[in-house]
Amino acid sequence: MQETQGVCVTAYGTNEFPAFFTEKSGCMVSCRVDTPEDCARLIEANTRLDLQTGLLIAVPIPKEHAASGSVIESAIQRAVAEAREKNITGSAETPFILSKVNELTGGASLKSNIALLMNNAQVGSKIAVCLAQLREHCNEG
CA 13 to CA 139: how far, in whole Å? Predict the structure, then answer.
């Protein structure tokens, strides 16, 4: 969907779009970046080309924090089914599903989610530093 809107969808360190709680989703990406420097160059190229589109850099959850795909998928399916049964929709749906998945996984999904958030912040900050350095270097020349 993003690509049809002109958004470049790329994955960090993988050829496969990461799922929320696991490293793999089964969906291949057409663009891969492997370092914060690669990401910074991609962002800068998008800016300089004035494409007027965004970029999505999908960072997978660290392997050591990934939940078992089958356990998570089962919990998600059960939570979604319960939300439907209880007619939970709109802005209440996501919090309900996340809470239910956390309950069904005995807290494993929450731990995975926190690890994903921390990793995203870490990678994002490295990208920001590289982008600032790249732009500083470009402005000097």
Answer: 29
User: For the stretch 78-116, what's the b/e string if a residue is b when 16 or more beta carbons lie within 10 angstroms of its beta carbon?
Assistant: ebbeebeeeebeeeeeeebbbebbbebbeebbbebbebb
Q: What are the pLDDT digits (tens) for 16-53?
A: 999 877 888 889 998 999 999 999 999 999 999 988 88
In tens, the pLDDT along 59-79 reads 998 888 887 677 888 899 999
- Residue 43: is it exposed, middle or buried by C-beta count within 10 angstroms (0-12/13-18/19+)? buried
Q: Which residues contact 88 (CB under 8 A, 6 or more apart)?
A: 96
Instruction: Give me the residues paired with residue 16 across strands.
Output: 28
C-alpha 129/C-alpha 67 separation (Å) is 30
- Give the predicted TM-score (pTM) of the model: 0.81
Q: Which of 48, 44, 16, 18 is closest to 32 using CA atoms? A: 16
Angle at which helices 36-48 and 108-140 cross, to 10°:
60
Q: Is 8 left (phi over 0), alpha (psi -120 to 50) or beta?
A: beta
Q: Report the distance separating Cα 30 and Cα 58, nearest Å.
A: 12
Name the more confident of 126 and 71. 126
